């Protein structure tokens, strides 16, 4: 499952914990600017920055292409900090060096923050506008703080994920409710046709394999979108939310793609015709009073698609 800035910011205690991390790191390196960067495969986002008396131009909320980022030069697999006491003496490409100049950075240390599965979250950084020395003990202490921070992020991930499909769960949906209603977008509610037959004929382990496949298919389905989420609401019911406003013709084409994906299975299920029914709606800000209202409407459309003959969609 991809991670983005909005996902991280929705974690219940992220603001408080990140501020505490910054303050602890500031005690260790009081004359440096301390900041937390988030990186995914596309962008780097500066999430938190300490108050500082250095001329480094790091500001909260700044987003740059990940290929321009200093933090992208860290070897996340090894987990080793990147220490640059004179950052202007390096072998980076021009894009990274332009970032160094833009930030007016003279020295830098970046502590990698990663999940147990190896997926990176980002970095805990300390920097100064002039070249400077980083004490080994101080770097080790920063590394310990970064490790504790990663444990917290890991726990939040577990709390918000469905353990079977690795999709987000209903708890995470509740944490997104205000944003969905206030922004609008495309909501897609679906369930599987004849899924009970799979469980009855082959057992729940095979049924679980099918649900895992659905999780993989929905994850791939939302990959092209910067701000999109897939949820398992329970059983064989799933929700996809795409924040981007999509024209009706494109949305119809997306429904056809999704129906086709959910007709073909790697898991052996004999001659059972396993497909999906979909109720979807394009909505604008404040069309619905709350998430329950939105889901009720989608569920009505899903019910209509079932009565239309299954393996189909209703899109409003």
UniProtKB/TrEMBL annotation:
The keyword Nucleotidyltransferase applies. Keywords: Nucleotidyltransferase, Transferase. This is Diguanylate cyclase. It holds the Pfam family GGDEF. It comes from Paracholeplasma vituli. Its EC number is 2.7.7.65. PROSITE patterns: GGDEF. Residues 183-316 form the GGDEF domain. It is an enzyme of class 2 (transferase). It comes from the Bacteria. GO terms for molecular function: diguanylate cyclase activity.
């Amino acid at each position: 499952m991809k991670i983005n800035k909005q996902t991280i910011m929705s974690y219940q205690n992220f603001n408080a914990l990140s501020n505490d991390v910054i303050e602890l790191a500031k005690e260790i390196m009081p004359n440096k600017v301390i900041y937390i960067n988030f990186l995914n495969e596309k962008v780097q986002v500066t999430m938190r920055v300490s108050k500082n008396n250095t001329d480094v131009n790091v500001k909260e909320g700044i987003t740059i292409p990940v290929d321009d980022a200093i933090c992208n030069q860290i070897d996340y697999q090894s987990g080793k900090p990147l220490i640059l006491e004179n950052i202007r003496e390096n072998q980076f490409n021009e894009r990274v060096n332009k970032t160094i100049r833009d930030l007016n950075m003279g020295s830098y240390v970046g502590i990698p923050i990663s999940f147990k599965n190896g997926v990176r979250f980002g970095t805990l950084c300390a920097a100064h506008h002039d070249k400077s020395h980083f004490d080994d003990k101080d770097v080790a202490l920063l590394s310990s703080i970064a490790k504790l921070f990663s444990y917290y992020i890991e726990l939040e991930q577990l709390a918000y994920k469905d353990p079977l499909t690795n999709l987000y769960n209903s708890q995470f949906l509740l944490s997104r409710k205000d944003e969905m209603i206030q922004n609008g977008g495309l909501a897609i509610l679906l369930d599987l046709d004849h899924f009970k037959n799979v469980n009855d004929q082959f057992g729940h382990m095979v049924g679980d394999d099918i649900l895992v496949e659905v999780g993989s298919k929905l994850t791939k389905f939302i990959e092209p979108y910067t701000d999109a989420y897939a949820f398992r609401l329970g059983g064989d019911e799933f929700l996809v939310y795409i924040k981007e406003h999509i024209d009706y013709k494109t949305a119809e084409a997306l429904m056809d793609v999704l129906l086709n994906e959910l007709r073909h299975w790697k898991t052996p299920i004999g001659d059972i015709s396993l497909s999906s029914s979909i109720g979807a709606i394009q909505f604008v800000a404040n069309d619905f009073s709350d998430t329950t209202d939105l889901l009720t409407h989608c569920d009505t459309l899903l019910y209509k698609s079932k009565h239309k003959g299954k393996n189909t969609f209703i899109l409003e």
